[in-house]
Every structure is written in structure tokens, then in C-alpha cells.
Specification:
The complex is a heterodimer of chains A (about 110) and B (about 120).
Chain A (H helix, E strand, L loop, with lengths): L3 E4 L2 E4 L5 E7 L5 E8 L3 E8 L6 E2 L6 E3 L9 E3 L8 E8 L7 E2 L3 E5 L1
Parallel strand pairs in A: 2-11
Antiparallel strand pairs in A: 1-3, 3-8, 4-5, 4-9, 5-6, 7-8, 9-10, 9-11
Chain B lengths: L2 E3 L4 E5 L4 E3 L2 E3 L5 E8 L6 E7 L6 E3 L2 E6 L4 E6 L8 E9 L10 E2 L3 E6 L1
Parallel strand pairs in B: 2-12
Antiparallel strand pairs in B: 1-4, 3-9, 5-6, 5-10, 7-8, 8-9, 10-11, 10-12
Classes of the chains: A mainly beta (about 110), B mainly beta (about 120).
């Protein structure tokens, strides 16, 4: 692993189903983030974690939950998927505010 | 509050033309960082540059250059002699230390879609 790994790459999910998007980093970065990207709306922050054991809500947290049990992993869970959660999801990490983010390659999720 | 504005939603130019992407930011922080990221059609987000608030020197990297002006709160990005491969969405972002309750978060502009026609 080098950088950030997201899984799955893409997924078609039936509405009402539960889904966890996985994100793992190997850079020992303190902070991790989940964004969704929708056409014409840029990047919107869902949840973040400044350090292992802590999480916070971003701009669009409803319908999503996260956990940060350790430094490397930051899974995003959709408890009961809805079509409006169809999007591309990016995980990112940062070791310091001055270094910006390293992004994963994204997960394309379609809820039908 | 912190804010990043990329007023140009989409720009289309012919190959070999120069093009400037505008970025205007707002922050009350005295120490902050500015970034540009590129998102090509393949979808990944690629880091281009970081600039801290105490360094106003312009930066040039090949055909790319960045003009940071604190007086106008702008951090504009110019591509010289554009190429088709430059076609992408470009995002400007800001990270401040004092205003945010988290000192790691980036504030993102909405992005500018750049189309380079052959």
C-alpha cells in the first residue's frame, strides 16, 4: 500500500441496504476526511477525524457515520442507502495543515 | 469565516493559448496555506502546489505559474501554451490555523472546468 486505498472502486447498491466504504492510509497521517463529489457541486465534506479516536461532522453528515479506531483506517457507513447518496466518494488524509491532502482514488456509488 | 471563490465555472481555449484560473479567498487568519489541485477526466485528485501566507513570491513550474497577492486575496493559476492534456477541473483550497476548530481542514472552491481544444 502506498498512500490511500479506497474500496470498493465502484458499487451499485439497492436502496435501504447498508454499505461501508473502506479507507486505509499508510502514511501515519493524523487527520482523515470523507468527501462526496457531485456534478456541479465540487467537494463537500461529510465527516472528518483529526486523530484516532475522534470524529467530527462536516457539511453534509446526514445519513453517514464514521469511526476512527486507529490511525490507518477511516470507514464510512451508509446505514440505509438512499438514491440521493449516489455520488463519488473520496477519502483523504493530512499530516499537517500545511501539507494539504492526499486523496484516494475514489469510490463511485450508485444507489438504485 | 473562511471562503474560497472560483468565479469561473468553465473556461474553454484553443491549444497553445495561455489561460489564467482565478482564485479569491477570505480568511481572518494571519497564517494560512493555499493550494491548487487538478482533477483530470480520469477522476483522481492531484496536488499541484502549496503556498504559505508569508511567501508571496510567484512560483513557476514548467508551463504552470502561480501569482499570490495578499493585497487582493488572490492566488491565481496560469497555464502557458496550454495543451489538451491540461483539460481538467482545477480546485483552489485554503487552510487556516486559527479560525477553524480543526487545524487540518481545507476550504475548497467550487472548481473551474478547463477545456483545451485541439
Amino acid at each position: 500500500i502506498a498512500g490511500i486505498t479506497q474500496a470498493p472502486t465502484s458499487q451499485i447498491l439497492a436502496a435501504g441496504r447498508r454499505m461501508t466504504l473502506r479507507c486505509t492510509q499508510d502514511m501515519r497521517h493524523n487527520a482523515m476526511y470523507w468527501y462526496r463529489q457531485d456534478l456541479g457541486l465540487g467537494l463537500r465534506l461529510i465527516h472528518y477525524s483529526n486523530t484516532a479516536g475522534t470524529t467530527g461532522k462536516g457539511e453534509v453528515p446526514d445519513g453517514y457515520s464514521v469511526s476512527r479506531a486507529n490511525t490507518d483506517d477511516f470507514p464510512l457507513t451508509l446505514a440505509s442507502a438512499v438514491p440521493s447518496q449516489t455520488s463519488v466518494y473520496f477519502c483523504a488524509s493530512s499530516g499537517d495543515s500545511g501539507f494539504g491532502y492526499t486523496f484516494g482514488s475514489g469510490t463511485r456509488l450508485t444507489v438504485v | 469565516a473562511q471562503k474560497v471563490t472560483q468565479a469561473q465555472t468553465e473556461i474553454s481555449v484553443v491549444e497553445k493559448e495561455d489561460v489564467t484560473l482565478d482564485c479569491v479567498y477570505e480568511t481572518r487568519d494571519t497564517t494560512y496555506y493555499l493550494f491548487w489541485y487538478k482533477q483530470p477526466p480520469s477522476g483522481e485528485l492531484v496536488f499541484l502546489i502549496r503556498r504559505n501566507s508569508f511567501d508571496e513570491q510567484n512560483e513557476i513550474s514548467g508551463r504552470y505559474s502561480w501569482n499570490f497577492q495578499k493585497s487582493t486575496s488572490s492566488f491565481n493559476f496560469t497555464i502557458t501554451a496550454s495543451q489538451v492534456v491540461d483539460s481538467a477541473v482545477y480546485f483552489c483550497a485554503l487552510s487556516g490555523l486559527e479560525e477553524m476548530d480543526s487545524n487540518y481542514q481545507l476550504i475548497w472552491g467550487a472548481g473551474t472546468k478547463l477545456i483545451i481544444k485541439p
